[in-house]
Specification:
single chain; Rhopdopsin 7-helix transmembrane proteins; 9 helices; GPCR_Rhodpsn; cell membrane; two-stranded antiparallel ribbon; G-protein coupled receptors family 1 profile domain-containing protein; mainly alpha
Amino acid sequence: FSERQLHTPTNLLLLSLAVSDLLVGLVLMPGEMLRESGCWLLGELVCALYLYVAYVAVSASVIDMVLISVDRYVAICDPLHYSQRVTMRRVSVGVACSWAFSFLYTALILKDNLLYPERTRTCWGECMLVFDFVSAAVDVFVGFILPVGLILAINLVVLVVALSQARAMRVQVVAHASQRVARRPQLKAARSLGVLVGIFLLCFTPYQCFSLVGGDLLQSPVASFLVFLVYVNSCVNPLVYALFYPWFRKAVRLISMSLLHTHARACAHTHGKFICIA
């Protein structure tokens, strides 16, 4: 971050989510297009590393969604103690642990694919990820059911609190209008979080359900679409934040202005002309 006012726990969580989304956009989507082109020309080692990075990015993204839900839960349900309970130090530790877990968990779940990549290849030029039923079931539970259960439970509590606040606002008199206005951001935050979680479930649920069929999924005609749908979630996240979170748009403006200001300061007046050093 280039501005001190952007140094907040929530923005740190969004930074972690942005890193995983960036990996999806810069590495996974081009790799997936190459993998689906019919011939993988980069070798078995690069194939194994590509599949590993893919799972790390997706796993980190899921954990980030859990952490963001917890952050919004505290902000909406216990705003008076938010600054004491959610600190930069705690969030930094949480983000570090989420990535460490993603690297370790992916190494364990893809152990055979990493150690023996030739076993998953049925012909030359192929890059395939093969799971047996047990590994697929474990991955669905640890990588999807457990975190999604936490996300849904947290958001259910947030929804109940938001509805109770809305009910209380309807019975307030005009004299308490300032209190009503003060609570509106909490309701908007709850609604925005619900949209984000809904899109997340829509993108991830089909793939996780079909992955239980194990190796058969890889030969299914819908396999490419399901993987693409998972990656689409990473493309949608920035749009959701830009549409529903005013503070996110403000942060983008601050960063843009900071970059422009830095570039302007690099302009030097030489021999009567301005020369801008990029």
